[in-house]
Amino acid sequence: KPQLKIENLHVSAGGTRIVQGLDLQINGGEVHAIMGPNGTGKSTLAMALMGHPRYEVTAGSLTLDEQNLLEMRVDERARAGLFLAMQEPGEIAGVSNANFLRLAVNAREGREVPVLPFHRGLLAKMQELGIDPSFADRTLNEGFSGGEKKRNEILQMALLKPRIAILDEIDSGLDIDALKAVAKAINDMRSDHLGVLIITHYRRLLDHIAPDHVHVLKNGRIVRSGGKDLADLLEEKGYEAVSGEGEGAR
Ligand code: ADP
Ligand code: MG
Ligand code: MG
Predict the structure, then answer these.
(1) Belongs to which family (predicted)?
(2) For residue 250, is it within any domain?
(3) Residue 85 sits in which domain range?
(4) Does any domain span residue 41?
């Protein structure tokens, strides 16, 4: 079973301290959700976990299956099975979606995946996710709508078969049908071999992917943890009422 351990994590970006003492453990088979208002450090946490160079870890420890992630580059973390669907995935000029995906799968698996079976698998997954086959040949994310980018991130996840997946606002920009397709794809991947961290503002996605644990992030720290009912409470009462420091924090 995969195991991601975050202990007393502190992250700075652009000279500002953003994540300030965050503890979280995610095991295979578990789905965790982090909720919190804008600007509380959710994306900063995600970027730091993946090893984005603009996000500096100033204290704390971060391990995946007892490997020290802090000593590993982004590509090494991906190879170890960490996956991040970014809130705003970028374009890569001159690289087709299919080629990008094949290179990423090769890197993850540490072998050259034969082209034909790869393409067959790719097209099958695209169909499942309601992505038009023409998106295989298009430049990665160029001219993709918000919802198309999000579905494409889930396509990447399905092909890469990560051990720990971090999904940063994967629900933003999705209409209800796309939301259901994305939720179904994630639910289909749920197993003891995968731990999931869903970052979201809204309960909406969590109505389709029942999380085992919900955490509220405030000022770069988890101030409250609970079960699915905590997401319901947040939607009903808002973050201020629910994020009283100390209450159930862990
Ligand atoms: P969230 O995802 O919860 O909305 P972010 O992690 O994106 O929050 O941002 C948290 C705070 O950190 C914000 O005040 C934001 O402006 C700041 N921040 C995020 N990334 C950077 C960066 N690369 N450089 C400087 N400040 C940043
Ligand atoms: Mg935000
Ligand atoms: Mg964010």
Answers:
(1) Belongs to the ABC transporter superfamily. Ycf16 family.
(2) no
(3) 3-242
(4) yes
The answer to whether the predicted template modeling score (pTM) of the entire model surpasses 0.90 is yes
Q: How far apart are CA 210 and CA 213, in angstroms?
A: 9
Whether 181 is in a domain gets the answer yes
Residue 18 Cβ inside 6 Å of ligand 1? The answer reads yes
Of the CA atoms within 13 Å of residue 173, those in its CB half-sphere come to 16
Ligand 2 ion: nearby residues, β-carbon < 5 Å: 38
d(CA 142, CA 178): 19
Question: Which tens digits make up the pLDDT trace of 112-132?
Answer: 999 999 999 999 999 988 899
**What confidence category does residue 73 fall into, taking pLDDT thresholds of 50, 70 and 90?**
very high
**Whose CA is closest to atom 21 on ligand 1?**
13
Round to whole Å and give the CA distance between 91 and 186: 23
pLDDT tens digits along 179-227? 999 999 999 999 999 999 999 988 999 999 999 999 999 999 999 999 9
- Residue of the CA atom closest to atom 14 of ligand 1: 39
247 inside domain: no
* Ligand with the closest atom to the CA of 18: 1
Q: 227 CB under 6 A from ligand 1?
A: no
- Ligand 1 contact, 44 CB (< 6 A): yes
The number of residues in the chain equals 250
Give the tokens for residue 142: 């160029």
CATH number, domain at 30? Answer: 3.40.50.300
Type of residue found at 222 = I
ipTM metric:
0.96
Mean of the per-residue pLDDT values of the chain: 94
